[in-house]
Amino acid sequence: MNTQTHVLLAAAILAKPGEPARNTAVIAGALVPDLAIYTLFVWSKFAGVPERTVWSELYFQPPWSDAVTVGNSAPLYVLVLLIGLVASRWLRPAALLTFFALAALIHLATDLPVHVNDAHAHFWPFSDWRFRSPVSYWNPSHNGNLFALVEIGIGILLSFILWRRFHALWVRALLVLAVIAYLGPPLYFGVIAQL
Ligand SMILES: [Zn+2]
């Protein structure tokens, strides 16, 4: 799924008003599997590499493919989760590791059913097996258009849940921006651009 949906989902499941450290750990955990992709994107802009080369070649080659694999490794986050669970018995802030790992695992669990050719080796380092789903979250040749609609629905529902839970103005402003980000492009290209 798209990064913003991962963040909203992890926040809806794990975030709590008045717990900024926990919520930061949740957001970081939801973001970290996509970190390599954003680093590649930013680097390619500075290096002047054309977008087509980035997503059809570099993304599938080391070192970028390795960084993506490490960031999407479920065993790695399970390890962090266990360390967090054990260490937090003596050191309370270690519970942040638990929230970080849980958010990352939620990210992986929701990416698994919606990746086809870009499927991740979620069980690395134990296995390089990749689940190639019939559904892609973006590719129209693999039901991507239909899933995009489903993801918009999920994103708006999660924004609504978080809106009810969080009353801080800046959180609500971000949620409004998220809804605009979901609805803006389809409204523009589907309705306004057709007029
Ligand atoms: Zn992802």
How would you portray this structure in words?
The protein is mostly helical and 195 residues long. It has one domain (3-194). The protein is built from nine helices and no strands. Helix 1 (3-14) packs antiparallel against helix 2 (20-31), helix 1 (3-14) packs across helix 7 (95-111) and helix 1 (3-14) runs parallel beside helix 8 (144-165). The longest helix has 22 residues, at 144-165. The radius of gyration is 18 Å and the shape is globular. Zinc ion (ZN) binds at residues 33-34, 107, 111. The site of zinc ion has 4 residues, from helix 7.
Features:
195 residues, mainly alpha, 0% strand, globular, binds zinc ion
Pairing-aware structural class of the strands and helices?
A: mainly alpha
Low-confidence stretches: none
Summarize the main sheet. none
- Tally of alpha and pi helices: 9
What would the principal axes of the Cα set say about the shape? globular
Mean pLDDT: 93
Q: Can you write the helix and strand succession as a string?
A: HHHHHHHHH
Number of strands: 0
- The fraction of residues assigned to DSSP E strands is under 5%
Give the termini distance in whole angstroms: 30 Å
Radius of gyration: 18 Å
Name the helicity range.
55-70%
Bound molecules: zinc ion
The number of distinct structural domains comes to 1
